[in-house]
Every structure is written in structure tokens, then in C-alpha cells.
Design a protein that fits this description.
Length: about 425
């Protein structure tokens, strides 16, 4: 109760201070100069969704060829700031994926808790804690309140809820800026795989090992040609809506020895361990166009994912299905899931164009149509897969209040032939409020 009262008080104080601040920050100064401070933010993302179910999908034991649901995709509150000239603290609490088929009164929990020491003001800071400082690509740590589409490219969070907590791990890290270079280097102790609900028992196909995890290392390096991006927190902006001119190229990698295991065959069942090794290169371009408030945003990445022999994981965010009818399953599994992560390669691109401010009339917000394409080539499957998304954002007040309408067309893979044999659609309307 005391913790809840403290959070409420901090938000209340921030609101009172924000009334006189044009950027509406929820900020409490801890000294007269304002160099020591605490800030608070809040983000809520609410989905209303229609989904064509994967074959055999059931809800509560009843087959459903399609579903409609409303749920909380994300609810987050951040509390962070400088408490000393050389000490920065960051915490985030929240909850993900609360819908009709999740347990009642699902508890909020800490996503992040870290402390950071400034060795130098710009070139080197070091920290530790439960954190999203991670490699190996830009959107391995997405700033979810600023993503361009209705959701982040989730495959970039390669170990999500397998050996981490929604991408966060217990880590020590170093980060900073050296001229136009921005870097992060991380060493993590992965969470125990045996405590995860998304990992299967050992078989001839690779999955995360239940043996004690070895140290995981990673990093990401960017060269920023134009405007510099903030590295105060690990989360990287999806689009600046024309407020910055950004052109970055980046490379990254993530490595963990003996992270995976499988049997060499079903007869002898000798256990083989393999390293997990991912690497990626990406490009981010985001800038204003003209003088009427228009902007363009583009991101592209190619990544190699190394999870060991024939690893594939199906993912469906806030999955509306809960099981599969006997004898009717596809490789995808239930609901909205499809093969999203696996050993092999992924190429991904997203492109959006923010229409000028006068396109809808004065003070009527802005529209941003966008497209997203994912091309996956996983070793276990017999052919590459393509997933297509197209949508439009309506920015009522920038990222602070926006509606996103997204159409997705995804592949469905036959469980026997391991080839695509049909496709399914999903439509999502998201309402976001961010303070």
C-alpha cells in the first residue's frame, strides 16, 4: 500500500508541475537547479481486434474459426531520473497482454530496475540491474510509445520470455557516445529456461537448455550521420514524426555458449549442446519533408539467428486462442500465432509517410500510412515465409494520443509438409495514450 501511495503522490506532484510546462512533463526537481530530478511517464495501448483463427483453434474447448477481442496490449509507468550528478536510476512497472482468456487480476510487475554511474558525461556510463539494455539490433529494445506501426517487430526480441522477462535480463552494461558513434555492450545472466512456459521438452529439434545458463554477451554499435539520438534509456524511438533528422546504420551481435540442446536421434537420445549466436545489420532513416509538417520514416534490417538445429518458435501477441482441437492443428499452433523466430535469417522493412499538418485541416491531427514486410527463411521449414502489414496512424496529438488501424496477412504452415498452405488475416485497432 505504501508503494502505491508513493506512486500516486509522485504522479500527482508531477501533474501539478506539468500544468505550467508546455511539454507536459511529469517531473519533480530534487534540487534548486533541476539537475537532480525524477520523472514519471505513463503509456496505455488498448487493442480491439478481429482475427481469422489458425486451423483447429479453440477457446475454452470450443472451436473458433475467428475471434473478436478487446484487451490491454501494454500498460506501462516509468519512474526515472538523476539523483546525483553521477547517478541515474530507472524503473518501469506495468503489464502486457491482458485479454478475455488471461487470469483475472493479473498482477503488474517490474519490467526494469537499474542503477547507472556516469564515469564521463557522454562517452562512458556503466549500470546494472533488470534491464532492457541489450544487443543486437535497433528494435531489440523498442520504445513502444513511439513505434511507427501498431506493434514492434517482435522477432528482434529473440529470447522474449524464454530466458528473459519480456526482453529484460539481469545485466551489467556499458554505453556511451564517441563522436558520431553510439555503443552499448552487455553481459547478462539469462533466466532459467526450466521456469519458462514457452520452452518445449528436449527432442531432436533444438530448444533452450535446462542446464544452468552460461553468461550471455552482446552489443550494438550505431553510426549517426545527422541528429544525435538520446541514449538516456535503452529504448529506441520508432519515429520522431519530423522532429529530428536521423540517419543511422548499426551492427550488433548476441552470444551465449551451450544455450541450446537437442537429442542427436530418437534412439540413443544423446544430448548435444549448441551456442546461441545472433548478428544483424540495420538502417534507420527518419526526417521531415518540406515545411508543412510532413515526414518520412524508414527502417530495414537483416539478421541471422542461430538457435541450433531446426529451432522455430511461433508467436502471437496477446493470442486470442488457448488450445488446438485434436487432429486439426497446423504448424502455427493456436489463434494468431505463426513462425516468427527461428534458426535462419530474417529480412524486415517498414516505411511510413506522415502527411502534412494541413491535410486534415488545422488542429485536426495528422495521418501516417505505413507498410511493413517480413521475409523469414528458417532452416526447419521447407520454404521462406512472408508476412505483410499495412495500416494508418491517426495522430490526435503526436504519440501522446493516437489511433492505429492495421491489417496483417500471415502464412499458415502445414505441420507435415512444413510448407505454407494457406494464409490468415488479422485487423487491429489500437488506441494509445502516452503522458
Amino acid at each position: 500500500m505504501k508503494k502505491i501511495l508513493f506512486i500516486v503522490c509522485l504522479l500527482h506532484i508531477g501533474v501539478l508541475r506539468a500544468q505550467t510546462k508546455p511539454d507536459r512533463e511529469l517531473k519533480m526537481n530534487l534540487n534548486d537547479s533541476g539537475t537532480h530530478y525524477m520523472k514519471a511517464t505513463f503509456t496505455g495501448q488498448i487493442w480491439a481486434r478481429y482475427n481469422e483463427s489458425n486451423p483447429g483453434t479453440t477457446v475454452g474447448g470450443f472451436e473458433k474459426s475467428n475471434t473478436f477481442d478487446i484487451g490491454l496490449r501494454r500498460v506501462r509507468a516509468q519512474f526515472f531520473g538523476k539523483v546525483h550528478d553521477k547517478v541515474f536510476v530507472y524503473t518501469q512497472v506495468g503489464i502486457n497482454n491482458v485479454s478475455y482468456n488471461t487470469p483475472r487480476r493479473s498482477p503488474i510487475y517490474f519490467h526494469d530496475v537499474l542503477a547507472e554511474y556516469y564515469i564521463t558525461p557522454k562517452s562512458l556510463q556503466m549500470g546494472m540491474g533488470l534491464t532492457a539494455w541489450t544487443g543486437f539490433s535497433r528494435f531489440a529494445s523498442p520504445a513502444v510509445a513511439t513505434i511507427m506501426g501498431y506493434d514492434a517487430p517482435l522477432f528482434a526480441q529473440a529470447t522474449n520470455d524464454a530466458t528473459d522477462q519480456f526482453l529484460r535480463k539481469f545485466s551489467v552494461y556499458a554505453k556511451g557516445k564517441l563522436g558520431k558513434f553510439d555503443y552499448r555492450i552487455i553481459a547478462s545472466t539469462p533466466m532459467e529456461a526450466r521456469n519458462s512456459t514457452v520452452i518445449k521438452t528436449i527432442s531432436t529439434n533444438s530448444d533452450f537448455s535446462f542446464r544452468p545458463a552460461k553468461l550471455q554477451t552482446g552489443g550494438y554499435l550505431m553510426y549517426q550521420f545527422f541528429d544525435q539520438e538520446s541514449n538516456l534509456t535503452p529504448y529506441m524511438t520508432g519515429t520522431y514524426l519530423g522532429k529530428k533528422k536521423v540517419f543511422n546504420i548499426g551492427i550488433g551481435a548476441q552470444y551465449q555458449p551451450d544455450a541450446m540442446w537437442h537429442w542427436n536421434n530418437t534412439t540413443q537420445k544423446d544430448t548435444v549442446t549448441e551456442a546461441m549466436f545472433h548478428y544483424a545489420a540495420d538502417l534507420f532513416y527518419d526526417r521531415p519533408v518540406g515545411d508543412k509538417g510532413a515526414a518520412i520514416s524508414f527502417y530495414a534490417t537483416w539478421m541471422h539467428m542461430g538457435f541450433g538445429k531446426n529451432y522455430v518458435r511461433n508467436l502471437g501477441a496477446m493470442n486470442p486462442g488457448d488450445s488446438i482441437a485434436a487432429g486439426k492443428s497446423s504448424f502455427n499452433g493456436t489463434g494468431s500465432a505463426y513462425p516468427m523466430i527461428g534458426t535462419g535469417s530474417i529480412a524486415y522493412a517498414q516505411l511510413g509517410f506522415l502527411l502534412p499538418k494541413n491535410a486534415l485541416g488545422e488542429k485536426c491531427g495528422q495521418l501516417m500510412p505505413y507498410v511493413m514486410i517480413t521475409h523469414s527463411n528458417f532452416d526447419r521449414l521447407k520454404q521462406p515465409l512472408n508476412t505483410f502489414d499495412a495500416g494508418v496512424n491517426y495522430f490526435i496529438d503526436g504519440h501522446k494520443a493516437k489511433l492505429s488501424l492495421n491489417y496483417q496477412n500471415r502464412p499458415v504452415v502445414n505441420a507435415t509438409t512444413l510448407k505454407e498452405y494457406t494464409r490468415k488475416n488479422m485487423i487491429v485497432l489500437q488506441f494509445q495514450v502516452a503522458i
